Amino acid sequence: MTNNFFKVALLIVSLLYSLPTYSNEEINSSAHHLSDGTYANTSGVAYESSFNKLLKWSWERRSKNLETFKFEVEVPNYKEIYKNENIVTTWIGHETFLYQNKDINVLTDPHFTQRASPLNFAGPKRYMVPGMKIDDLPNIDIVTISHSHYDHLDYMSVKLLAEKFDNILFLVPLGLKKWFESKGIYNVREFDWWDSLIIQETLITFAPVQHWSARGLFDRNETLWGAWHFKNKFHSFIHLGDTGYTDDFKTIKEKLGPVDLAAIPIGAYEPRWIMEFSHINPEEAVMTFLDLEASKAIGMAWGTFILTDEPVTEPPRQLLKELKKYNIPNEDFFTLKHGESYLID
Ligand code: ZN
């Protein structure tokens, strides 16, 4: 007991040192809560893609030949994953990572099924199988959901995880708890931007990014979106979810400090006239890396579903070009193969 008390006290002291500080004004800031119950971005803009724009995009896409590609896969480093003693980040595909920080095991935006769609017979279909199966996961403590879009919140994946792991906790943006409860999942905590929670010895904070949410035609922006930030005495990691380019990244760095590792989206960006607001391109991903003052970054949101118009092999290639342009070594901002584990020692 005394030992545990000592550990908790030590943790609190070590976290206080790096805890974000807020003024009262900032804590009470709720400008992103609109009077109709929906949410806006920190810029004040709530994303509304016009029906005409979507129609124009669909029309232009009809003649485009969007080809898939068989990317190289790698067997996850199961020895390290099951040993569970080091900092290991395994890319399962799209924005799904297994993140192990010597304290808790986290799964981000878990997607393990065939489609990112409300329908099981239509909608974006996965062309690369997940780099890891649910059956092969180590014990999972925490699942984070960045927002409600189908490629980030997948019903069957969430259901299977809730059944498999007794003590799993789902951390979700404001407004999404009732969706989970409607599916019979009750171990859920909702976060507003800058809310944080300590799980074991890890401080978890939800931070703003520029995006939007919807699962149907009539629920636009009724639930929040954002990035999940993890910090303990060993390591810090941020998973940005989907985002357009925004000053939020500089704010995140100011409030939470420079991060050791960032998962930054590099795909789903064309055509710019429709995607620019809500999805960064590889050049903006590099700017984001610099704004966050991240030591390392992994490019995500590519190589799994065809959601937008750029060729599926373009994001990692384009990332390399942009890194060169900004004089950033390739080993600082890289991509993983599906299933590949990145070990930090
Ligand atoms: Zn999205």
Summarize the structure.
With about 350 residues, the chain is of the alpha/beta class. Helices cover about 25% and strands about 20% of the residues. The protein is built from 10 helices and 14 strands.
- By CATH, the superfamily of the largest domain comes out as Ribonuclease Z/Hydroxyacylglutathione hydrolase-like
What Rg is obtained from the alpha carbons, in whole angstroms? 19 Å
Give me the side-by-side strand order of the main sheet.
Answer: 6-5-4-3-2-1-14
CATH class of the largest domain: Alpha Beta
Number of strand segments: 14
The hetero molecules present are: zinc ion
Number of structural domains: 2
Q: Main beta sheet: strand number and arrangement?
A: 7 strands, mixed
Shape descriptor reads: globular
Q: Poorly predicted ranges (pLDDT <50, ≥5 residues)? A: 5-28
Strand content range: 15-25%
Find the CATH topology of the largest domain: Metallo-beta-lactamase, Chain A
What integer is the average pLDDT? 91
Please, how many helices? 10
Helix content: 25-40%
* Name of the CATH architecture of the largest domain: 4-Layer Sandwich
Descriptive overview:
- The chain is of the alpha/beta class and 345 residues long.
- The chain folds into 2 domains: 2-61, no CATH class; 78-343, Metallo-beta-lactamase, Chain A, CATH 3.60.15.10.
- Helices cover 26% and strands 19% of the residues.
- The protein is built from 10 helices and 14 strands.
- The protein has helices spanning 2-18, 24-27, 51-61, 78-83, 155-164, 177-182, 248-256, 272-275, 282-292, 314-325, and strands at residues 87-93, 96-101, 105-108, 142-144, 169-173, 188-191, 196-199, 202-207, 227-231, 236-239, 261-265, 296-300, 333-334, 341-344.
- A 7-stranded mixed sheet has the order 6-5-4-3-2-1-14.
- Helix 9 crosses helix 10.
- It starts with a helix and ends with a strand.
- The model is unreliable at 5-28 (pLDDT under 50).
- Bound molecules: zinc ion.
- Zinc ion (ZN) binds at residues 147, 149, 211, 242.
